Amino acid sequence: MGVVSGVTTVLFGFGGGFVTVPAVYLATHGGDMHAAVATSTAVMIVNSGLATLDSARRHRILAQYLWPMALFIAAGAALGAYAALSAPERLLHWLFVAYLAVTIVDCLARRGFLSRQAGDSVPHELTRAESTLGGLLVGFVASFLGVGGSVMTVPFLRRKGADMAGATATANPLSLPVALCGSVVYASMGPAASSPGLVGHVNFAAGAALLAGSLPTITIIRRALMLRAIPDAVHAAMYVALLGAVLLLMAVIR
């Protein structure tokens, strides 16, 4: 699963969130969604951080979309993490599933993600409401569900005119505020009785195992993409297909 986490970080800007949540949830026999979400945010710090550095060196990040949106994402992430700690396990599980389903339908139904016309490829500036209220919403949902924000920012940036390479590259730095703020809250607000490898709700043992597979994979995939870029339409279709696969996995887990 660590290998898959690395692949999704580079290709889709997920930071591993959509792989980490199901992986940790399965490892706890479908019984600790809080640990799954918390561990996902911690793994994203490393995965998204490395992917951000690489994208910055290759000048792929769309800097005009980072500030001040990242600040409001950070604020929303802290609120989302606190809210998740009070939410029942089962509610988190099914909200995760529902969110995936809504995102897939939105990507398929709304113009600008899979189907693009000439005007769709012209980047548009963010409005004040998109930077503030949009950033708060992205941070809250991403931290609450442990998905890193890319599942919201990638479709959003596509509709603002970004190609998949730019949207996924920009999703990683926008996921860092979620990862940092969420991890601090989850690690400091855990149960009184902690197990080995567990700090608060963050399972560092599971996170380390995932990173052992994801970090070498990030390096390999990064070099492969330098040799051959993925066509934009194919890249977008792969994004939706991955969301569908994770949706099916989480829907059958009890």
UniProtKB/TrEMBL annotation:
Protein name: Probable membrane transporter protein
Family of the protein in this entry: Belongs to the 4-toluene sulfonate uptake permease (TSUP) (TC 2.A.102) family.
Topology with respect to the bilayer: Multi-pass membrane protein
Short name of one Pfam family: TauE
Location in the cell: Cell membrane; Membrane
Spans traversing the lipid bilayer: 7-27, 33-53, 65-85, 91-109, 133-157, 198-221, 233-253
Coiled coil: none
Highest taxon of source: Bacteria
Keyword set, alphabetical order: Cell membrane, Membrane, Transmembrane, Transmembrane helix
Keyword Cell inner membrane part of the UniProt annotation: no
Keyword Transmembrane recorded: yes
